[in-house]
């Protein structure tokens, strides 16, 4: 019964993703505009070209804001990934290295100092 519910939820999520495919593609196109605007703004030297690239980046940002239904599609993609992991009986973990955590490093160094 549990596998049936997971399968039913996966089918519903696939339909949601397919329904929001247009806004997802629009969001990707808008974010490409934002990226290009930022990239070429940094590379440009003249004030006029910087203003043009800021304008292009703002157009991309406004396009991205208008694609709010794409957020539903993104959430559906994440939930479908979680259901896939649940189906395979795998844990969903975030790839965080403990040595990159400043608090863990502090605790390790503090324990070395107090010894």
In short, what is this structure?
By secondary structure, this protein is mostly helical. Helix content is about 80%, strand content about 0%.
Radius of gyration: 22 Å
Number of helices: 5
Q: What is the H/E string?
A: HHHHH
Q: How would you classify the helix and strand content by structural class?
A: mainly alpha
Oligomeric composition of the shown chains: single chain
* Number of separate strands: 0
Organism: Ureibacillus thermosphaericus
Protein name: Lia operon protein LiaI
Keywords: Membrane, Transmembrane, Transmembrane helix
Transmembrane segments: 54-84
Describe what this molecule looks like in 3D.
- This protein is an all-alpha fold.
- The chain has one domain (2-113).
- 80% of the residues lie in helices and 0% in strands.
- The chain contains five helices and no strands.
- It has helices spanning 2-19, 21-43, 47-66, 69-87, 102-113.
- The longest helix is centred in the first third of the chain and has 23 residues, at 21-43.
- It starts with a helix and ends with a helix.
Keywords:
single chain, about 120 residues, mainly alpha, about 0% strand, Lia operon protein LiaI, membrane, transmembrane helix
């Amino acid at each position: 019964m549990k596998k049936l519910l997971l399968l039913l939820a996966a089918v519903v999520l696939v339909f949601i993703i397919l329904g929001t495919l247009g806004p997802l593609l629009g969001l990707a196109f808008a974010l490409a505009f934002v990226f290009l605007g930022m990239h070429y703004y940094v590379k440009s030297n003249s004030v006029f070209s910087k203003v043009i690239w800021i304008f292009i980046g703002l157009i991309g940002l406004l396009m991205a804001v208008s694609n709010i239904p794409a957020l539903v599609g993104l959430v559906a993609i994440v939930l479908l990934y979680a259901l896939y992991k649940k189906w395979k009986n795998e844990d969903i973990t975030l790839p965080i290295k403990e040595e990159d955590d400043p608090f863990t490093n502090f605790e390790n160094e503090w324990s070395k100092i107090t010894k």
